[in-house]
Specification:
86 residues; alpha+beta; Ubiquitin-like (UB roll); five-stranded mixed β-sheet; 2 helices; elongated
Amino acid sequence: MEVEVIRAWPRRFEAVRLQLPEGATVGDAVDAAGWSGDAGTVAYAVFGQRAGRDTPLRAGDRVELLRPLLADPKDARRRRAAARGR
């Protein structure tokens, strides 16, 4: 089965398409992409839904390596709203 593994940073990303055997997991995909040692990764997702390394994959899935948030989304929204109110 074919899956895609993606890791992203502000303004750039890397994507790898992989052929994996049926029954492969998120961990198998990350290992096959060579990104298992990425220290910036704090979690994984499949099509935006949180997943663990043992989550089974299906053909066509997109595995995303998640990084820590740089800013609290609520605080950022408040700052934008305050700036528009001026």
